[in-house]
Design goal:
This protein is of the alpha+beta class. It is 50% helix and 12% strand. It contains seven helices and five strands. The structure holds iron/sulfur cluster.
Length: 191
Amino acid sequence: MKIDQLSEGLARLAAVSRQDDWRTGEVEGLTPTQGDILRLLMTRPKGVRLSFASAHIGVSQPTGSDAVSALERKGYLEKISDPADGRAVLLRATPAGKALARRWPMSFGGMIEALSESDRVDLLGIVSRAILALQTQGAISRQRMCLSCRHFARDAHPGKSAPHHCRLMDVALGAGDLRIDCPEHREVNAA
Ligand code: SF4
């Protein structure tokens, strides 16, 4: 197999996805990094710390801080104190930020829509395994995904269409149900 061709194809898809972000950003007055933070805040309505947001979207903390300041100035994000630690600050989307995030295009949305359902399920498995491998190499920050979750029971239901199981929610998981970003995730080796 020609891995350079696979690499080329992935690079083209990544470029198209980022172009969508830039195009929307031009209209809305945001950078793609600011859009990434808004997207994240939509999945964490209680708010997140800057360190978490920066690691999650794969930027340094200073870069994350600049993006957060810009979002705050534009009225899309607010800082609130963390109920778990009064000295810490959480970032939360404002109503205007939530409205903008809903207009922001889904990453790789065009490609995903062009695929069949079975191809999407296959791709989700491939992406999950690729992220896990990169995490193991230390090339990507830890993601809150099923494959690295202590609640995940692989092949708990052999031969079934949903062979895996989430012990926390007590539900069977099929290949298409795997989560890449789950708020309930607990790292396998966490205390
Ligand atoms: S808690 Fe979330 S990440 Fe963990 S197994 Fe269940 S669905 Fe997956």
